[in-house]
Amino acid sequence: MCSRLHLLRLFTPVLFAGTALFCAPPIGSQDTEKAVAKAVRALEARYKGAGSFRAVFLERRSEGRGSLQLESGTLYIRRPGLMRWEYEAPEKKLFVVDGKFAWFYVPADRTATKAALRQSDDERIPLLLLAGKTTLGRVCRRIELADVHVEAQGDVALRCLPARGGEEEYKEAVFEVDAESHLVRLLVREAGDVETEFHFGRWEENPPLDRALFEFAPPKGTVIVDERTLMGNQDAN
Length: 237
What we know:
By secondary structure, the chain is mainly beta. The protein has one domain (22-236): Lipoprotein localisation LolA/LolB/LppX (outer membrane lipoprotein receptor (LolB), chain A, Clam), CATH 2.50.20. Helices cover 14% and strands 40% of the residues. The protein is built from three helices and 14 strands. The longest helix is centred in the N-terminal third of the chain and has 20 residues, at 29-48. The relative contact order is 0.20.
């Protein structure tokens, strides 16, 4: 029998309507591949049908026992390959994918981190499939139904095992899709019991989003940290 996730009690009605969770319905083995293929096609078709999207999100990150961080904000997507995450609470932060680089900016620290997309292992990168930059088949070496709690009856959860191996890669990603093929949850599990979970709501299709929204211009005095330089320093040590 399913139980509620205590985490969802922290969600506000403004972000997400309802907190009831349901177990995913059992599917016979003979129907599993068809169910997976149908869900993947529907998810990709949903986000191919519009040129831009906007949604609210709540992010939960845990690193082992006793460590929990909750953040919320607004996500903007423009095809092909552009994303902007505006974090609003508990502090303002910005994550921008401009098509070539991923930028992470913390105004309070006056620091911005820059990484080439092909080098970044940021947990938000799998969502580039919504921006038309890739497909689940390219991101995942294997896709299967995930036996996890889902947020609403009729939702489908897909487990993605990453296409490339290595210690830097996430162990798995779980995409939860609702009855209208909107992505409502992304759970990324990494090594060391690290989990990052994104919940999405209030999806809007084709909002007017200017290209400049996805360009990061560091404010004067911002320190730019290039991940390639950091990796080079680590190798040297």
